[in-house]
Fold these 2 entries.
Entry 1:
Amino acid sequence: MIKTAVMGYGVVGSGVYEILRKNADVIAKRLGEEIDIKYILDIREFENHPEKELFVKDANVIAEDKEVEIVVETMGGVTFAYEFTKKMLMAGKSVVTSNKELVSTKGTELFEIAREHNAAYMFEAAVGGGIPVIRPLVNCLAANRIKAVCGILNGTTNYILTKMFKENRSFDAALKEAQESGYAEKNPAADVEGTDTVRKIAILTALAFGSNIDDNKIPAEGITKITSEDVSCAAKAGYAIKLMGSSFIEGDKVFARVCPMLVPYECPLAGVEDVFNAVQFTGDMVGNVMLYGRGAGKSATASAIVGDIMHIAKRNEFDPRFAWGEERENTFIDPADTRYKYFMRSESSEEEIKEAFGCVKFIEGCSDAFITEEMSEAECEKKGEKIDISSKIRVYEVKE
Ligand code: HSE
């Protein structure tokens, strides 16, 4: 029997407990061994819990118990979660987490500690919730050089944008509905300003290209400035607006960005609606591979965690394929040099727009909206100084 502990009995932590109890039979059958929960760490009282004897308040109880082999970290944040994760890895225990903030900011250091103590540090649940993303990348696509990664990585913003697209809601009205439906937090800043997506694309980029990416270097724009007019004009031109995390590698240089983008209807990413997420990897041999499913939620995220526990249970050691090294210096492409087509809305006259941007495509049925030719960010900035621009959104280019 494999003994585990869960640190943090919130939504996801309790989901892990429930899966390990509800699906104990199939898990044991597939693994050839049972998985038991010996402790649950939480500072709160759970007097009415059917297994209240499992609860402890001191992380040392878990760290010092030699029977516990695998510890789940579903505490969130980077203070206690960081301290306790280090403690467990140093005690030689493997750790499974859904904590994207911790993995994206401290992953490199935690992998090193895991390596020193021959323990695993696994994070399938940190990106794409229940969608298998990390192991397909590391295992099934291992024969490829990954050229690009992109995805709709945040359920809350995708729900809001879908409401704006399908029901013509304003951003504020759609956000309110997302909060009422329990999708968006009371303080939705990390979701709507793109921070949550930054953490997820930082993890995927580091894993795909092999070295750490500082979250702070990734230019990020959220969806707070997207208007219902933007959404309907984009729709008339054949595009859905999505908050995209994307990255690519060119030679030894990498780039990652989070921003809303116009995605053409013919691209499967445009059809990813509501709280669903999708991740697309572009491999040099396989081409584009898209993984789709529930990017958040209790059972979906806990499903990914239990999958990691079962993976570790078979091979409980540090596996360098699930880690990355230090950031390489001077390898991050200058955002000003990246190139896009741009969707814009402007009150300036057609002549002024043409004078500023040259050949543009005006959108039928939206007198103030047009799409430019491809140009660099720096060029677009400079040309844009000549006219009044109320909206500027990058256009996603489908590449194979
Ligand atoms: N707030 C996140 C989302 C939860 O909406 O996708 C999962 O990371």
Note: Residues 63 and 87 are 7 Å apart (CA to CA).
Entry 2:
Amino acid sequence: MQTIRKKLSILFVTCSIIAILLIILFVNITINNKFDKYMIDIQNKRYEGIVSYFREVYRRDGKWTDSSGIELMHEAYMNNYCLALLDKNERYVWGMNPDNIRNNTHINTMFKSNKGIYNSKRFSIKLNGEVVGYVDIGQYSPILLSEDDVNFKKSINRSIIVSGIIALTVTAAISLYFSRQFSIPIREVANMSENFSKGNFNMKFDSESNIEELEILIKSINVLGKKLKYQDMLRKRLISDISHEIRTPLNVLQNNLEAMMDNVLPVTTDRLNYLNEEVIRFGKLLNNLDILKEFESEGIKLNFERTSLDELVKDVCKDFYMAAENKNIELYYNIEPDKDYIIMADKDKLKQVFINLISNALKFTKKDGKISIDLYSGNKNIIVKIKDNGIGIKKEDLPFIFERLYRGDRSRNQTVGNGIGLTVVKNILQLHSASIDVESEEGKGTVFSVFFNK
Ligand code: ADP
């Protein structure tokens, strides 16, 4: 198995090598072709120069002699070509021996394979439109190159190869860098998910990626980690809450029963009643868990019907007047008049929502407090606000109050409760496509806002 980094590096480098080799090949072929063309042009110019030189000699002398243009022989010898002068009847006036230049050490031919094959071209010398003679120019290669020409060609080829090698090194370095950009986040994400599978949710991937898909991957693994951590914390809390709820009545039962068996405490009706209450409390906990199970199972059936929300809220409030009076708490409701509060709802279940919210408000509001219930209609929603000036909710408890069996520490110590009221509220509202919000300040009070779609 190969790492993604190795795979990507190999891919990048292979592509770069192919691209660079192709570029080198094309540049080389193009430059060589151009250079050859340039050298052929120069050679043609030389041929023209030789012919016109002989023409001038003939114009000057009016005839061909053994020494006509013989001074060109030295230059021809030095530049590796052979000259032969012929009169108009194509009879040799004078000529160089091709063997003399065959073994010249300064011979450079462009086409090594052609070395040794002597080629000669015949050019006519014309004066006033009349052919007065011929010159043969022969050489051992199609193009003659000087030492400088060859060096120039070699240096160009060397530069192309060197720039190819530099380009390859640079692309290899860049591809290594870029493959790291891919491989590091992917390896890190793989590492994190492995840790998650081992139950270690405290990991966070801090660095960012400028590759969109990888950035999304990093963000989602971070969100996943957060959610798993949150769920893990809730699970632990749920277990500790349940064991706490069970242990308290069990301890009371066990201690009292043992004391009675050891005759430390007399068996009285009062004591038996007290113990029975603990058993009932214990049973209540199991009932509550059953209620939760019912709401959290998907198969729950709701009996939707046209419901006047204002009537429903009014009815629930009426049921609490007595309890509020007993605690000397002012309970009143405000319903914005002339509005339509008809919604489709399961009346009994929805009543349970407001019963739970108002009973919480009563439970967590001290004597002489104030509870108000407001019902009004917004643009898109019907809103019910349950506001109290009670003990409020600690900031750190706020995110958890809708979780199963969650109870704020203060309420756990001071008031009766089971921590499922708000979970049930949330579940019922979800089934009605409604939502709930809470704002609270410790010591000042709490506002629960319920939003129903119109
Ligand atoms: P319970 O009331 O049985 O404890 P709930 O699920 O109804 O369970 O509420 C969860 C927690 O939310 C309570 O324990 C309490 O800490 C907090 N809470 C709910 N309503 C209020 C309120 N009106 N004022 C202050 N705290 C509240």
Note: The longest strand covers residues 130-139.
